[in-house]
Amino acid sequence: MKINIIGAGVAGLSAGCYLQMNGFETTIFERHSTCGGLCTSWKRNGYTFESGMQWLLGSGKSNPFYQLWSELIDMDSILFVHHDVRMEIEVKDNYDIFGDKVFHLFTNLTRLEKYLISIAPEDESVIRQLIHTIRRMQSYEIPPLIKSVPELLPWYRKIRYIKYLPLLIFLNQVKRETNFTFAEKLKNPFLKEAFRLLFDGDEMPLLILTMPLAFNDLNGTGYPIGGSIDFVGHIEKKYIELGGKIRYQSDVKKIVVENNHAKGVLLSTGEIIPSGITVSAADWNFTIFKALEGHYVNQTILELQSQEKLKVYYSVFMVSLGVAATFPDKPHFLRFPLPQPLISPDGSKYERMEVHINNYDPTSAPEGKTVISISYYTRYADYWIDLRHSDQSKYESEKNNFARLMIDAADEKFHGLKEKIEEVDIATPATFQRYTNNWKGSVQGWLPGKNMIAQSPVKTELPGLKDFYLIGHWTIPGGGLPVAIKSARDVAQMICHQQKTVFKTPSP
Ligand SMILES: Cc1cc2nc3c(=O)[nH]c(=O)nc-3n(C[C@H](O)[C@H](O)[C@H](O)COP(=O)(O)OP(=O)(O)OC[C@H]3O[C@@H](n4cnc5c(N)ncnc54)[C@H](O)[C@@H]3O)c2cc1C
């Protein structure tokens, strides 16, 4: 059976691999000239600038996602960096602890616990409770949940899942805690402030911190040396070895539908490529409202589109710098307050700055040089996207001016930085939207809602449409690479089930 896949991001490539492994004949249509989508890097004058890879869930054997990645690539051939400190947060001038204004979020839980208690002995019981909660997350075994599609399981296998009830009850208990509510429980002013600043001043479910910390501690979340481009290259190679075909610079305009069955894709060139099944690994909004013209929607989908059910994840304004210097003593990820707030042309006001110093990947810059990236999340991506359409020269000048302000602010922190800059690359939300087609330049699909453990309202099948599946980071709020591979694997299982064949993967 022929299957057309739209998009050669991590989801599209992964789906291609799993379907090829199971005897299907797949072709991926990618509008860009390279694969990877948001998970990409690009070269400028000897520097490699990174887009979407800070850490990969499943980098170490301790994590269940390691098994999934290993089905597609030889994980032993990739060198992962597991940082000792996840990030450093500099709090305001009027707070310090032992003369240090920087909060270090250690990835080793024992070290983190000791550090937190040394800062705030008065908060010892709250701190111990936090670390205990994270350790409990580590104690639950979850691989079968990751490998199966619950809807496809017969009742006698579903019943086995009863053993995960304690995990659900436990997550249900902790899901309401946010970084703000947790900060309220603390007496120590420094620690209180540090927890309030964990998500750059926003209030978010604490699970967004505690879950990754549970994995960090077990070396399950590392950065792959070589960055996104190398990582994705491994999956692309596997797909081609399995006999898959990729058609680059093939922009899908519509999904061809006959009698409510997806029958193929129509490219912008006018070419129609028929298939038995169509899988979209492209943007959610494009797929439903443009490629399918909004014919297959229900109330939930309409509420998602108006962002009543979930909010779209932020986009990013990112300035990447190639700097002729090394920063061996600097943290790889630092957030710090600015002397004066920065006001973006899109209306966002930033009182702090986030800097990533790529001093741990020697492949990212020539010897003696370093890639630094300064980035801001924004909720106002449409400003940049619309401006680029309506007035390109104003867009260019506002983009360059704001980037200059960001560089000036970084220079105040890292004195002498500016004069060592050799290369500057600016990516706005319009850049992310243009290169990957993601709605509103979203970098991870949907923002997780308040109820992080509720079932996702986004479905892989659309009401009334047959022989069609949706995969990728829009299918589970929070997105990211784990959702890309998991959704691809699930849909490959669903297709095998539909075709009455047994889903196979290489044995580990
Ligand atoms: C700055 C940044 C940092 C990030 N950090 C992390 C991280 O540390 N860890 C993590 O797990 N995730 C991270 N992410 C998120 C992660 O990169 C994405 O969630 C993931 O790559 C999404 O993969 P995807 O395949 O679902 O979608 P995409 O990457 O969006 O792929 C979709 C593909 O479809 C193609 N396409 C779209 N429309 C069409 C069309 N009409 N015709 C043909 N092709 C089309 C696009 O060109 C693209 O190649 C980060 C992202 C960014 C931007």
Walk me through the topology:
Layout: E1 2-6, H1 10-21, E2 25-29, E3 41-44, E4 47-50, E5 56-57, H2 64-72, E6 80-81, E7 85-90, E8 102-106, H3 109-119, H4 124-139, H5 143-147, H6 155-158, H7 165-174, H8 179-185, H9 189-196, H10 207-217, E9 221-224, H11 227-241, E10 245-247, E11 252-258, E12 261-267, E13 272-274, E14 277-280, H12 284-291, H13 299-305, E15 315-323, E16 333-343, E17 349-358, E18 370-378, H14 381-390, H15 392-413, E19 421-427, H16 429-436, E20 468-470, H17 481-498
Parallel strand pairs: 1-2, 1-14, 2-10, 7-16, 14-20
Antiparallel strand pairs: 3-4, 5-9, 6-9, 7-8, 11-12, 12-13, 15-18, 15-19, 16-17, 17-18
Helix pairs in contact: 1-11, 1-17, 3-4, 4-10, 8-9, 14-15, 14-16
The protein binds flavin-adenine dinucleotide.
